[in-house]
Amino acid sequence: MVRKLIVDSAVHWVKNYKVDGFRFDLMGLLDTETVLEAYNRCRALNPSVLFIGERWKPYNGTEAYRWYGSTLYDPKPTALLFLTMNSAIW
What's the angle, vertex CA 36, arms to CA 32 and CA 40, rounded to 5? Predict the structure, then answer.
C-alpha cells in the first residue's frame, strides 16, 4: 500500500505538474523495488527525470547492505544519484 502511494504520487507530479526531479531524505529506508518502480514509471513519462536520495540506512542485519550491492545499479547510465557524506555516486 505504501509502495502504491509513493509510486502514484511521483507519477502524478511528473505527469500533471511536469516535475523533473525528486530528492528523498533517507532513501535507504525505502525498499529498492519501490524506488526503482517509481523511477522507471516516471522515466517513462520523462526520460530525463532525476531521483536523488541519501543512501544512509540504519543497520538491521544483512539486509542493510542491499543498497550497496549491484542489484541497485542499472548497467545503463540512469539519473539515480545516491549521496554519501563526502561524495556522490552515480
Answer: 175
